[in-house]
Amino acid sequence: MAVRVSDNQALYCEAAVAESMPFAVGVWFRVKTITSNHPLFWTGDKDDANIWCDLEARGGQTGDPVRLVQKWGAANYRDAESDAYSAQTWHHVVAAWASTTSRLIWLDGVDTEDTTESVELAGYNRTALGALLDASPNFEDWQELAEAAVWHRVPEPWEIQALAGGWSPLFFLDGLKHYYPLGGRFGQNYRDIIGGYDLADWGDPVDWVADPPGIVYPDDPLVGQYRVNGGPFRLAAAGFIS
User: Does the global pTM surpass 0.70?
Assistant: First the structure.
C-alpha cells in the first residue's frame, strides 16, 4: 500500500525530524497531473510562515522539476531543482541538506544540482508529508507517497541509486533516524518504525493506494524489536542504532 494525500489533508507530527545538518530525505511519490505543485516533505516552524525546509514536485513551474526550498526570514531560496518528473508514474527523490551552504537533489537516482546560498537550520517544531504546514497551511491536489525516510547524513550515490531501484531504506541503517513505510510490509499505519515520531492525520484521513512502488525488503532487517499494537518501541539494529 501507499497513501494518497489530497486537498485539506496531510500527515504530520509536532516534532522536527532534523534539527541540524547534514540530513537527507527520501520518498517515493506519484501525482495525478503535472499542472500544479505538490508538497512531498516539509519541516519547519509551525508558528512562523518564514522558517522551513520544503520538498515539492513543481508541476506549476517551467520544466516540471522537483524542487528543494529553504526559507529563513525574508529570504526564500530555491535551493536545488531536479530534471522533469512525469504524472501517473512512481518516482523516487532524495533531497539532502548537506550543510548551511550545500543542498542537493536526486530524482530517480540521478543528481542534478548543488547550491551554495547560506541558510541556517533552527527553530523547527513540526514535520509534514503532503502539505506545507506552517502558520499559513498550504494544500494542493493529490499526491501519493510511500517509503519516506530521514537520514542524519547524506547517503552515498550508490545508496541513492539502490533506493531508486526499489531497495528499502532498511538496507541503509547507518544514520537512518526516521522511517515511514506508509504501507508495504508494515501495513496501513503512519508509524515511524525507527525514531518513534509517528504521524497523524491533518484534516480528513488520507486514502490508501493499492498499487505502490515495488519495494525489496531485507529478509531479516537486523530487527531487534518491532513496535507492537502502538506501544513504546525502538527498532534496534545490531551495531547501527542504540
Answer: yes
